[in-house]
Structure formats: C-alpha cells, structure tokens
C-alpha cells in the first residue's frame, strides 16, 4: 500500500469520461497541498490507466522514472545475443589509451 493510499484510503479511479471535469479540482488540490496532494487517477471500467500528479512531485520522481527506463533498456540490451569484448579492447579500438581509464 502506498503512502498516498495509506493517507487517503484506496485511491478512487475516475472514469476517463469524467477526468476532464475533475482536472480543475485536482489543480485546486495541487495548489493547496503541493507535492503531497492526492493525484487524479483515471481509466476505463474503474481500472487505473493514467495518473495526473502535482508538477512539484513529478520533478522529484523524474530521476527515478529515468532510472527505471534506463534499467529496462539495459536489461533488453543484455538479453540480445552478441559477442562481448573486454572493456580495454573497446577503449583501445576507439583510440584511447586504456591506462588513462585506470
């Protein structure tokens, strides 16, 4: 259970058709409560599919989101078949002195 869910109970999911009308209420919460404001969760058939959060919170979590995306990319690339080479060989191939990286 997230901190937000603990604080507010289970977050309700607004139908997508009603999300636009709820945006002004969400903005009021964001202005009043800042990063700790309850997000606007919306989706079809009460299934959460999207979230609107305060920008202040977005700025704080963006590095974490980037880490997750980079991690997924690394896992995909590691799963690809291919030859591996020692780092020293790659450094030399690029024209650098391997000793300068020690």
Secondary structure elements and their pairing?
Blueprint: H1 3-8, E1 13-15, H2 16-33, E2 40-43, E3 50-52, H3 55-79, H4 87-93
Parallel strand pairs: 1-2
Antiparallel strand pairs: 2-3
Structural class estimated from helices and strands: mainly alpha
Number of helices: 4
Mean pLDDT: 89
Unreliable spans: none
Strand content: 5-15%
Characteristic terms for this protein:
102 residues; three-stranded mixed sheet; 55% helix; 4 helices; mainly alpha
Write up this protein.
- The chain is mostly helical.
- It is 55% helix and 10% strand.
- The protein is built from four helices and three strands.
- It has helices spanning 3-8, 16-33, 55-79, 87-93, and strands at residues 13-15, 40-43, 50-52.
- The protein has a three-stranded mixed β-sheet.
- Strand 1, helix 2 and strand 2 (40-43) form a beta-alpha-beta unit.
- The longest helix has 25 residues, at 55-79.
- The radius of gyration is 22 Å and the shape is elongated.
How would you summarize what this structure contains?
This protein has four helices and three strands; from the N terminus they run αβαββαα. It has 102 residues and is mainly α. The chain is elongated, with a radius of gyration of 22 Å.
